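DATA SHEET
Item: assembly model
Revision: 1
Owner: S.N.
Input lines:
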Amino acid sequence: MQGYVPGEQPAGTDYIKLNTNENPYPPSPKVREAVIEEIERIRLYPDPMANRLRDRVAEIHGLARENVLVGNGSDDLLTMVMRTFADQGDPVVSPTPTYTLYHTLCEIQGANYLGIPYRDDYSFNGELVPAKAKIVFVANPNSPSGTLLDEDLLSRVATRIAGVLVVDEAYVDFSRKNCLGLLKSKKNAIILRTLSKSFSLAGLRVGYALADAGVIEQLAKVKDSYNVSRCAIAGGMAALGDIDWMRENARTIIASRRRLTWGLEELGCFVFPSESNFVLARITNYPAEQIYRQLKRRNILVRYYDIPRLRDCLRISVGTDAEIKRLVIEMAEIIGWRTKVGSQK
Amino acid sequence: MQGYVPGEQPAGTDYIKLNTNENPYPPSPKVREAVIEEIERIRLYPDPMANRLRDRVAEIHGLARENVLVGNGSDDLLTMVMRTFADQGDPVVSPTPTYTLYHTLCEIQGANYLGIPYRDDYSFNGELVPAKAKIVFVANPNSPSGTLLDEDLLSRVATRIAGVLVVDEAYVDFSRKNCLGLLKSKKNAIILRTLSKSFSLAGLRVGYALADAGVIEQLAKVKDSYNVSRCAIAGGMAALGDIDWMRENARTIIASRRRLTWGLEELGCFVFPSESNFVLARITNYPAEQIYRQLKRRNILVRYYDIPRLRDCLRISVGTDAEIKRLVIEMAEIIGWRTKVGSQK
């Protein structure tokens, strides 16, 4: 078995990092203050259930504490879902291509992963999901496509299946829509959120799950006792207490996403309509893998997937406008240089 | 299934907390500096393998990076061990009574937990461990007894078994001995360490595993991609860079442990010889559970276990000398008060 391979995290700082969908802007200054204050209590264990943070999340979404569970990033919550709802051999489903961790977690658990292909335009036929599925994972917006499925479609999937529907909304703050409405009608719906992207806290590790109280109770049984650190609880509370800061950054990123999309389209790429803080660009006039490699040599990191349907694509995080401009210029050079060589033949 | 129930973590700060083996002294001031500096990079994901921290750990123990894996506390590493080495129905063994999380993790995994009782003096007959064991967990020093098994005995257990021997050395810095020597001869030995106790970082979540490179590689496959936060990596590095600070605190705690032991013995308790930052006291002249409850009413928390062999015992963390003095005085009052009432009958 192969473990999940995350995007490169080079030690040096001179890279333009457009490969792991980090936020190019810092978190609210309140996070810094809160973490510094919390260090005074760092010799003590954190609250095992992070109840103050649960309460803040609940308040934001108009839910109760019992509908919220906090994780060491949303990956931690994905692991809890897997360990709670899938035994060895159980069918676990995702539309594909998607976040490959779902597959990896299935392999670890010995569950039976079934990837059901998105259509070419990343729409999805929910009726292909087998009713016996124990878990259906849907990244929505999806990674690496950046595209969004409709709540109605997901609601029908939740109704079809015997198990739980996990809607992984890691990128939802960059989207026009969310699926919180599912929680009202579907007891088997689990919504996952993370503070890594829109709240600029990838390094702190805070995510949360929203679901029916019975589901949350089951998940809590398999979580590590002290899964969320004092720094993460304090920093998470501070970030969620300054939603305006996040919204302002998200607006800026959405505007930059538009400029990145135009730039890539001018280079002849097809850009899938993105509802997230990255875009998936299909490149037909030059091998995507070579662009990835040459960008890396020029100190720009983007994400290339050597798997079916994605070999002609790059996933590019939305950085600052300056970073995007630099990326587009370098890509133009790479593609243009090849065109010249080609024409000399 | 019941989840693991950790010690109480009350929200108020006016308790004397002698129930979860936290360090009464703060961590090295270098931790604070390092965490504050790291907040500047908190928008970026941490290094998935925490390699700088691995290198520091490796250097301290005279090992290679490949022999080290870092976890979100050592509980995270226990979970990785369980998910790597035990499938459903596999036999997993511990001497008991011990850290109850081993049993809980088995239930979550569907493995078959076999607790083999320590002798009354907390020595252990290693030949009772079945050879087919996939994992043997030994807390050493043990919790809640505080007692130590010999490296020779554990070495023989490692030789006997088909699976891995996990020596959980959470409390080892308060002990005269450790089992690092096992790593030289036993490829199936895994040593776990935590920075929660001796390094005063319970709230930060840093632990590590030491083992053969092949074992570490397998464990790394099941870990969450970004299991250790930037704050934990930076704070952990700083703490391990100031070993003298930890040693000084450990010396103070060992001296206080002696005073606590004398105090409890004067009250008529039997105190098991402790090699950790807590003591297990057997109380024959008063119901232990009532002492626990009455201490709680007096704002002192200690640990009471309502399970066989421990119902006449309290586990008491070694606090400051002032805290210990207060505990002994209150216990004397509680026990004395009852004696008086009894004599009036």
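QC remark: Chain A touches chain B through 62 residues (CB under 8 Å).
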